[in-house]
Amino acid sequence: AQKVTQAQTEISVVEKEDVTLDCVYETRDTTYYLFWYKQPPSGELVFLIRRNSFDEQNEISGRYSWNFQKSTSSFNFTITASQVVDSAVYFCALTANYGQNFVFGPGTRLSVLP
Amino acid sequence: EAGVAQSPRYKIIEKRQSVAFWCNPISGHATLYWYQQILGQGPKLLIQFQNNGVVDDSQLPKDRFSAERLKGVDSTLKIQPAKLEDSAVYLCASSLGLRGGAGNQPQHFGDGTRLSIL
User: Fold this and answer.
1) Which among B89, B91, B103 is the nearest to A98, CB-wise?
2) What are the backbone dihedrals phi and psi of residue A45, each rounded to the nearest 5 degrees, phi first?
3) CA–CA separation, B25 and B38 (whole Å)
4) HSE of B49 in the Cβ direction (CA atoms, 13 Å)?
5) Residue A7 pLDDT
6) What is the per-residue pLDDT for B48?
7) What is the pLDDT of residue A97?
8) Which A-chain residues 83-102 have CB contacts (< 8 A) with chain B?
9) Is the peptide bond preceding residue B81 cis, with omega within 30 degrees of 0?
10) In terms of C-beta density within 10 A (0-12 exposed, 13-18 middle, 19 or more buried), how is residue B70 classed?
11) A104–B contact, CB cutoff 8 A
12) d(CA B41, CA B70)
């Protein structure tokens, strides 16, 4: 069975600090996809990034960066110079190659204080 | 591009009553998902459709929950009869669907329906 663990339940940082959200996954599939979604207080889930299991290159998008390491089954998300608008619950998710067995982690609530 | 539409936004019913939720996905999206998100938890997939066929309903409590997508476009999710533990937000999402692997398609979510059972 597929599983996603986000060990950090809640994180609080002060604005402009860097913060890393951890994600560890379990799967028996050799081909799979990993995602990060953001759920702001308004409630709508917003897609941030997807990564397939064959692409271990780290990715940077503005203040966001992602570190994918198959050796440790981790897909961590870093926000650089955090802002108050980054306050949200962040979910890591995993799916098999054809989109079946889609599993979300329990989420990490990030509070960025001014 | 219009997003995923869901209705109603809120619903309050008593236990043992029935309730139905409606979802209209983004135009052209072949895959449609229903999730249950209990307060403080991540979304849990209830059912996944590819066009009008079911891809995954392994976590759908079939004794009380049902869903359909008859014409491969919009979808309804029904609970009959509702229990107290069904209080949650019900999220609908859609994606482009299977093209050598639906897993590589990001899902677009609606605003959800918040269900409260009294």
Assistant:
1) B103
2) -75, 130
3) 22
4) 26
5) 94
6) 92
7) 67
8) 91, 93, 95-102
9) yes
10) exposed
11) yes
12) 30
Please check whether residue B14 is in contact with residue B118, taking contact to mean a CB–CB distance below 8 angstroms.
yes
Mean pLDDT, residues A74-94: 96
Task: Provide the pLDDT for residue B99.
Answer: 54
Min Cα separation B105/chain A (Å): 8
Pairing of the two strands A10-14 and B65-68: unpaired
Question: What topology is assigned to B5-117 in CATH?
Answer: Immunoglobulin-like (2.60.40)
User: Tens of pLDDT along A42-80?
Assistant: 889 999 998 888 888 888 889 999 999 999 999 999 999
Query: Across the interface, do A102 and B33 touch by the CB < 8 Å criterion?
Result: yes
In chain A, beta strands by DSSP E? 3-5, 10-14, 19-21, 24-26, 32-39, 46-52, 59-61, 64-69, 74-79, 88-96, 103-104, 108-113
Other Cβ atoms closer than 10 A to B60: 19
Q: Please check the confidence at residue B79 and state whether its pLDDT lies above 80.
A: yes
| The pLDDT of residue B46 | 96
Domain boundaries, chain B: 5-117
Domains defined for chain A, CATH in brackets? 3-113 (2.60.40.10)
If pLDDT is split at 50, 70 and 90, which confidence band does B105 have? Answer: confident
A68 touches chain B (CB under 8 A): no
Cα distances (angstroms) measured from residue B84 to each of B13, B34, B70: 10, 19, 29
User: How many Cβ atoms sit within 10 Å of the Cβ of residue A54?
Assistant: 9
Only one residue has tokens 């599983």, namely A3
> With an 8 Å Cβ cutoff, are B93 and A45 in contact?
yes
